[in-house]
Amino acid sequence: MKLERRHAWALLAIAAWNVVTYAQFTRALATTEEDRPVGYYVAHTVLIVVNLVIAVVLARWGTQALRAARADRADRADRADRADSTDTGRDLTRR
Questions:
Q1: How many C-beta atoms surround the C-beta of residue 49 within 10 A?
Q2: Angstrom distance (rounded) from CA 60 to CA 68
Q3: Measured between alpha carbons, how far is 90 from 79 in angstroms, rounded to an integer?
Q4: 7-to-20, 61, 68, 75, 90 alpha-carbon distances in Å
Q5: Helix 5-31 crosses helix 38-87 at what angle (to 10 degrees)?
Q6: What is the 3-state secondary structure (H, E, C) of 5-62?
Q7: Spatial distance between the Cα atoms of 15 and 49, rounded to a whole number of angstroms
Q8: pLDDT by position in tens, the chain (length 95)
Q9: 13: Cα separation from own chain's centroid
Q10: Is the pTM above the cut of 0.85?
Q11: Are 65 and 7 in contact (CB under 8 A)?
Q12: How far apart are CA 12 and CA 39, in angstroms?
């Protein structure tokens, strides 16, 4: 499957959103003054870690897709330049 630039940017945006929201969630969990059972903190810590891992995976996919799109665009431009340079050598007045 080939991802386009817009897909790559969407993956990066989702990854950033996960990091921002779970950083705030972590801060709120750490500063809570409520008396909660240990299981509550363990479960929420696991959720935070899993979501941050998901954010890293999405960010990696997004950056790989952007690099691939950039390389594809450069390849197409290079092929177009080569095609233009071969066209200039032809005599266009004859048919």
A1: 12
A2: 12
A3: 18
A4: 20, 10, 12, 20, 41
A5: 160
A6: HHHHHHHHHHHHHHHHHHHHHHHHHHHCCCCCCHHHHHHHHHHHHHHHHHHHHHHHHH
A7: 13
A8: 777 889 999 999 999 999 999 999 999 999 988 889 999 999 999 999 999 999 999 999 999 999 998 887 777 777 776 776 665 555 556 55
A9: 7
A10: no
A11: yes
A12: 32
Written as six digits, the tokens of 35 are 């008396």
Structure tokens at 18: 């996960």
Q: Counting Cβ atoms within 10 Å, is residue 14 exposed (0-12), middle (13-18) or buried (19+)?
A: middle
Which residue is it, tokens 């092929």? 79
